[in-house]
Amino acid sequence: MSWLFPNIHTLKEPLSDRLANKAQAPYFRDALSVRTEKTMLTPSQLQHSIFAYMPAWVTVLMRIRNKIVKLFGFTVGADNLRPTRDELNIGDKAGFLTITEKYEDEIISYSEDRHMSFYLSVLKQSDRVIISSLVNQKTFIGRLYVNSILPFHYIIARTVINNAMKDNRI
Prior knowledge:
seven-stranded antiparallel beta sheet; alpha+beta; globular
């Protein structure tokens, strides 16, 4: 499906971001890289530019997901990853995530429940942005969940990033 998203590059597990040392087996890790024309944006502003504009169909899917996973003991928060503003600080919310680390080149968000812990990194490297996620799966249900949503994750992540590029937000 790379023909659908030719400007988004899948990376092997990145070791240059700060998520690399947070992985605890079993885990899922992915990273996508795109070129940015807006090199003056901070990692926080890049995160906002990408995730503050979720398509309506993604929000609907997240609402359905939340209703289902709540039955299995997952923590359910916001239906999106929408940051509250474009320059986030540690402790701020970005949808269901909380900003836990902020550096000149990277911002990390986090959420956790009894089944898994989820991290999102937005790393700025010169004229590239690397968006990566890490999910530490704590339970069998957490592993089942991650494996069942991977096709949705693949499409949604690339669609949201592609839309940010197409709309000239990044």
